[in-house]
Amino acid sequence: MAFKNDQAISREVCITTNIACNLRCTYCYEKDKDSTFSFDLEQAKKTLSKVLSEPTLSGTIVSFHGGEPFLSYLKIRELCEWAWSQSFKEKYLFFIQSNGTLIHGEIQNWLRKNKSRIIVGLSVDGNEQMQNINRTNSFHLIDINFFVQTWPNQGVKMTISPQTIGSLADGIIYLHEVGVLNIAANLAEMVDWDNPDYLSIYQRELSKLTDFYIAHPQYKECSLYNVKFASVLSEETHKWCGTGTNMRAIDVDGSEYPCHMFFESVCGKELSEKAKYIDFSDNAKLFSIECYNCPTRNICPTCYGANYIARGDISQRDMVMCKFHKIRYAEVAKYQYSKIVNDNTPEENLSTEEKIKRLKTLEGIEKVADFLNL
């Protein structure tokens, strides 16, 4: 059985298909890109048989992770078609994050035929110039229109590097204009952002992007604008993602990890082995003392795997990025505040839920504004 791709899920199972990749992205954190390892098909079937025989409330996402997964296309196809022939109790959906360069001809036809039960998320880093800088001159190899037409609500993943931050707004605007509805944009992890010039560039680009969204309200804001300011009002600590709790990642040898960032191919053998014993269930342990006492702790994005690799502790965040986050909070707070106060919708036309949400958002913005001295 399949379900809607925008539906909340109970868990995610991540299967490493291979380590190899046909690109050499400037910010890539994975090792052994020329490796010939590929996942064991029979082991994957056993794993899925076990997982999908245990029904959950909201279903399971089965993610294929590379390298570039479509280098193992034939195995992926066989595993998917085998699963579809079974009568599992669990609702599930296959998902593949791909650089898109190999998706043509037969692969496109197979994906189009099965688009309701397998989704491909495209990774593309903005316009042609940005993509070619970050991803080894690969722009011409991607059929962006295929992804826009086949999974219009899925959108793309866009990674911003130090080399492309100066074109951040142009890249996002380009993707909107070619029909991408949802853009998940983020600054690259585990690269050197420790240059003060980047901060002023980031502020300039966000300001430019804000002007674009104000002038073009028909576009859905990219993920950089998805800041839930109401969350800062909560006394509880919030976990940023499902790593180690509702996510299970399975490496090419069948070993299980909290997420793919803890694979041996990513963080090395010693750290990878230790990661199997990390407790992710206590949210308070996911924050350093400094971050725990920060008013923005519940809206601060982090990658626990990147923290672990770079600083040896899932709670130790990159404090250089803290400066970038504050710039983002300030820009998005002003944008969200303006949208609310300038909305002319009569109050009687708002539901009670919408009124409460607006009030909480404004209270959260006020708290963040005080913290940032806006």
Structure description:
- The protein has 374 residues and is α/β, with parallel strands linked by helices.
- The chain is built from 13 helices and 8 strands.
- An 8-stranded mixed β-sheet has the order 6-5-4-3-2-1-7-8, with helices on one face.
- It is globular, with a radius of gyration of 21 Å.
Give the topology:
Blueprint: E1 11-16, H1 41-51, E2 60-65, H2 73-84, E3 92-98, H3 105-113, E4 118-123, H4 128-134, H5 144-150, E5 156-160, H6 168-177, E6 183-187, H7 196-215, E7 247-250, E8 256-257, H8 264-267, H9 269-275, H10 289-292, H11 304-311, H12 319-341, H13 352-372
Parallel strand pairs: 1-2, 1-7, 2-3, 3-4, 4-5, 5-6
Antiparallel strand pairs: 7-8
- What is the element string, with H for helices and E for strands? EHEHEHEHHEHEHEEHHHHHH
Number of strands: 8
**Average pLDDT:** 92
How many whole angstroms does the radius of gyration measure?
A: 21 Å
Give the structural class.
alpha/beta
Sum up the overall morphology in one term: globular
Please estimate the helix content: 25-40%
